[in-house]
Amino acid sequence: MALNGILGNAMSGIQASQLGMRSVSNNIANVNTPGYARTKVDLIARSAAGIGMGVQVAGITRVADVFLQAASLRAGSDAAKATTSAALLDRLQSQFGGTQDAGGLYGRLVKAFESIGAAAVDPVERVARLSAASDLQSFFDEASRLSAEVRALRDEADRRIGSGVERVNEILAELQSLNTQAQALNASGSDSTGVTNRQAELLDELSGLMDIRAEVQPDGRLFVRTENGTALLDNARLQLSYVPSGTGAYGADYGRITAVVSSSGATVDLTSSIRSGELRALMDMRDIELPAIAAQLAEFTAGTSDALNAAHNNSASYPPQTTMTGRNTGLIANDLLSGSGIATLAVVTDDGELVNRIDLEFTAGGFTVNGNAGTTVDDLVNELNAALGGDGTASFSGGRLVINATAPGTGLATVQDESSPSDLGGGRGFAHFFGLNDIITSARPSFFDTGLGAGTPLGTSAGQEMTFRVSTPDGRSTTEITIPADQATLGDFVNALNNPATGMGGFGTWSLDSEGALSFTPSSAYASYDFDLVSDSTSRGDTGLALSQLFGIGDAARMSRAEAFSVRSDLRSNSANISFSQLDIGAGTVPGDLVLTAGDGRGGQALYNAFSATRRFDGAGAFAGGTATLQEYGARLSGDVGTRAARAERAADSALSVKEAADRKRMDVEGVNMDEELANMILYQQAYNAAARMIQASKEMTDVLLNMGR
Description:
This is Flagellar hook-associated protein 1. By secondary structure, this protein is an alpha+beta fold.
């Protein structure tokens, strides 16, 4: 029995050394394999009845620290989130340029106003005016391009979310399959380190997409949850679902990332459960960062347009233009008009002599045209026609006021009263409010001070309605509210919006201010909720404008403004039509007086001064509402985009440093050390040789024993 024991011990040593060498060889082969964790052979002494019986291989285990792995996964998620955000913002920042970049948005604005200033010095020089018009168009073209770039980045982020969700599903499906294999291998006592290594590789990839934590079960299966505890893979697997919208349009209704439990078919919303990783970064960029930049860009571009139009509407071309075609105000014929101050419309000969003077005075109760009172848009048109007589005509259709000078060799001009300028809403005078002499045109409203009061007819048709969505701070939709928009007056519509039972009164208050601007203020309990316009089927009269467009309700109405501006086409084709002069009309000015002269550059100077004049901006993105010059707001916008990109880059650098440190700590435990493996190889080789020598010795002893009996 003693010789058999020696032989058995030696054979167990041979087997243990073979398995040890296999483990070492596998480690050395995978020394450069990313995510590979080394394996080791666990040996225990074998005994029977207290007598040593050699060595037993308890198993081959993967060397890993679950706590270091968890730290590495968290760091990987944070790094992926930070680097994704930084990459997208860096691309956008390079498009905006800085304040010193002549080709950037701010640089183009500065160049445009420099050209206007140069043209104002010599207003007769048409080439200088043409350069000014061209440089202005270049600025607005760049603003439109940047807005389109923001939309393109939103669309890219949305499509990448869809691709990321597909990859998450693939990873979870493979992990589920590996769980089955690991469970079977562990049940049979077989080596499962290959499966375990693959699980670790997939977890590393998954953590780059979303924040996760993993739990290894006693039977070898791997359960995966999000950091907030939502189970992705346990006894069942979630099948994630997301359908990209296919557009980056402002106001687009982006869907949610949902999941279906494979065993029960139940659906859960995962969007708010994803708090880190590439998917979170893409959602934040699509829904927060990029819309904020778009809102700021739109407000800046609209403010620039409005400032230029204010100056241009208070100026005149020489010779004067024969037709003034206003913007689509969104007004209808029976709308009430009110305001304050005085403005003058003049019919002037091509030589600058006054033909007809029409004074308009606005009050809280209406207006007068040469002393004749009126209250509605229709009244205004009638009184203008009466005052113009045979010198011109006025008409109003599709929201536009159009005035023509009918006598040959005559044209039109307007001017504000110096001591009491007219104001029909938002500080905009008569010509400015109606856009009679805009230098910058737009197919959609660029400001939302409508001048309308509560008693104004709503102007919509039966069956038209607006739908709003209320969402929690983490983006979950709580309810959708559809509100009829076919009331008699604007005040009635505001009351319907504020109805606590059928409107939004339970969440906040809609209000119509003295300038005709409609706004919503959430109550304190819902201050952090989101209120989005889902749909709007309204159309106001013959204007073709929805109420949301007229009042700037929703992202689409506000953010898309930057893509709608252009220098008026006739001004680009004939720079002589640019209004670089101003009317000289006082209380005693009468027909026959010279009121317009060639070489007058006051209108051009007023256009140039718009760059440094303080004006009001609405709150947009990260910018609170307030007053600033175009110069200040433009520099702030360029600086904000650069600051966002720089902040994201710093966050990415920091997150990558943390990830590198976590990975290094993890690899110190899991990684293959060549010196250590070579030492183990020598050890197992020597043990194998020694065990083989023991077998040889046992054979020789057995032979001696057998020979003794012969």
